[in-house]
């Protein structure tokens, strides 16, 4: 049996998703992989029939059948499909797309999306039929000229959400071997999810250990102790190394100005970026612009 790691399918148009705030696909082993977007802006709902191993935050679940999955871009997750045959549907959307008609609470506070919540549900045949019908309707509606199709699609998503809130969560989660390993894995995956930087107009949001601790809902001291214990390096060192690595890539492979590169990495002023870069590398950013 061949293992298959789900990866980003090359024909998924993320620029189109950014324009509309929504995209829906049929996914199966003969056509498409489950869509995975690099950007942290997109929530995901996916129905899938396969034998899989899903890692989500500090938990994981082994599935063999039909499941419904809710992905939060603020919480690291990965999906390994073990069986060679799989099928289902997936949609990705921004929070802004859904909030027009959704309650005012942030999506990542929903029990379906928040850390510590329940993102995975095993489905009965009746539930599978209902959820599939919602995806089929969204696919049919996505490319029509109906003037209110966004509202209609939001209604279909909300029906999926409310149907899921009535379901019992799966109880097959397993834990990391210890708390330090768990929080370090969360931190490292969340750090990597901040990259690559794709636009100079949306600066890096998570820049300090406090930022990551808040996003992971842990005390910063606990985060720092855990990362140091497991990796031997401080949280700040990991963040700095990743920022510098991204800075070098942007300086060498884009035509952005040095000021734009610095701004995209969270530095308000070019002098701040220059000083930071020189302190960590021993040279200034313009030396990479040969």
Automatic annotation (TrEMBL):
Entry keyword Ligase: no
Keywords: DNA-binding, Transcription, Transcription regulation
One Pfam match: HTH_18
Residue ranges of every copy of the HTH araC/xylS-type domain listed in the record: 181-290
GO molecular function, one term: DNA-binding transcription factor activity
SMART domains: HTH_ARAC (SM00342)
PANTHER family per the UniProt record, alphabetical: ARAC-FAMILY TRANSCRIPTIONAL REGULATOR, TRANSCRIPTIONAL REGULATORY PROTEIN
Protein name: Helix-turn-helix domain-containing protein
Provenance organism: Flavobacterium frigoritolerans
């Amino acid at each position: 049996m061949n293992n298959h790691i789900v990866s980003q399918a090359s024909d998924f148009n993320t620029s189109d998703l950014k324009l509309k705030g929504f995209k829906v696909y049929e996914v199966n082993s003969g056509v498409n992989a489950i869509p995975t977007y690099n950007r942290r802006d997109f929530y995901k709902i996916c129905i899938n029939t396969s034998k899989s191993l899903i890692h989500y935050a500090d938990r994981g679940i082994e599935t063999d059948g039909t499941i419904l999955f809710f992905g939060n871009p603020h919480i690291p997750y990965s999906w390994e499909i073990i069986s060679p045959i799989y099928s289902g549907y997936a949609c990705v959307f921004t929070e802004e797309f859904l909030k027009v008609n959704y309650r005012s609470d942030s999506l990542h506070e929903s029990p379906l999306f928040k850390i510590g919540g329940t993102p995975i549900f095993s489905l009965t045949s009746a539930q599978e039929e209902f959820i599939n019908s919602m995806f089929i309707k969204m696919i049919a509606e996505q490319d029509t000229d109906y003037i209110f199709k966004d509202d209609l699609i939001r209604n279909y998503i909300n029906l999926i959400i409310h149907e899921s809130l009535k379901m019992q969560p799966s109880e097959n989660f397993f834990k990391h071997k210890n708390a330090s390993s768990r929080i370090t894995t969360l931190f490292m995956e969340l750090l990597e999810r901040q990259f690559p930087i794709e636009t100079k107009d949306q600066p890096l949001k998570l820049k300090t250990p406090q930022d990551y601790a808040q996003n992971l809902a842990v005390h910063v001291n606990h985060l720092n102790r855990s990362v140091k214990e497991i990796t031997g390096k401080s949280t700040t060192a990991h963040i700095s190394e990743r920022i510098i690595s991204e800075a070098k890539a942007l300086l060498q492979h884009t035509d952005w100005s040095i000021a734009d590169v610095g701004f995209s990495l969270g530095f308000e002023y070019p002098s701040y970026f220059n000083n930071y870069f020189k302190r960590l590398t021993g040279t200034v950013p313009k030396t990479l612009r040969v």
